[in-house]
Structures are given as structure tokens and as C-alpha cells.
Protein: Transcriptional regulator
Organism: Advenella kashmirensis
Amino acid sequence: MTTNQPEEKGPLRADARRNRDSILKIAARHFAAYGVNTSLDEIAREAKVGPGTLYRHFPTREHLLCEVLHERQEELLSRRDEASAKPCAQTALRAWMIALKDYLNAFNGLPQPFIDAFEAQASPLAVTCSTLVTITAEFLSRAQAEGAARQSVSAPALFLSAVGSAFVHDKAGKYGATPEQIEEILAFGYLNSETAQDAADLPYPISKTGAPHD
């Protein structure tokens, strides 16, 4: 999985490489502890570099986040391969969606940068976002071909549903729900099978603003 990275003007000097690696190590810890909106100045201070050095390596917060996510991307791609190997398309899609949700929930607040990247192709996360939608499309197409998923479902919509699930994952308990219940609704909907089939045949209402409504 690739990301939009800041341009490098050749190999880094040993001291510059050490600074960069230190920034990434500290940033990973800060993102995990304080979320994606953690202070970049605090990251620079703990890494014993000036803010200018941090921004020279990582021009924006999103560039830094891209680099920190690389290790987690390797784990996600491994889970993609495991899901692809499953003989049942429905099970494979379910496994991928759970892996995707876990990836998007790696740090508190992480879904928001992906929403921004989904809307603005200039974001450093845009390539990652596009790749995730493409992978989701592969699983979805297989499930649709086997009749396990509705033809009306699109890969971008399914990706955004995973983003939404990740957004509320750590908040579910506050409202008397569990992450597992959210994931179940994501995968199977909230209607029983007969009602769901009837509902699938109905046109989806659109509000005057163009947004779907009940």
C-alpha cells in the first residue's frame, strides 16, 4: 500500500535519519496515547529536535500520520490476504471489513483524516484511501458475483460504513451498545431477512436537500 510522501532530495545523512526515526517512534507513541490531534510541538520536543526539523521531514500532520501507519498497513495487508483465502465470499468480505475497521480505529480520531482524504485528493492519505476502496471493491465484487451482497451496494459506500463504524467504536459503550453490535448491523443490517428483501425492492427516499431520509 502506498502513500503520498514528502519528496526526499537523495539519501539522508546519518544524523538526519536518526532524527527522522526518532520523530516517527515518538509520534507513534503520542498518536496511540493522545490521538491523531496530539501536539506536534510536543512530539518534536520529546524527540529532541526543533519544530523546523519535524516539518522538514513531515510537512503536515497527515504526512507524519502516513508514515506512522506504514507498520499497521503491513498488518492490514496480511489480514487482506487471509480474508482472500477464505472459500466463502461472504465470510471473506466480513473478515476484510473487520480488518479495515480495526485499521481505521488504530488511533483515536483516525477516521476523520480518512474522511478528509476521501473528499480531497490532495491529502497525503488520498492514495491510501483510494487503495483501501479498491481492495474493498474486490471483496464486494466477489460477494456480489456469488449473490451474497446486493448489487446496489458500492465500494465507496461500504468503505465509508467502515469509517463510520470505526468512528463510534470507542463510544458505543456510552450509549448502551457494544462494538460487536455495531459491526453486526454493519454486516447484516437491522431488518430481518424477509423485511430486508421487501425493503430492498423499494426506492430509497430522497429529501429536498438531496440526502436520504426515513
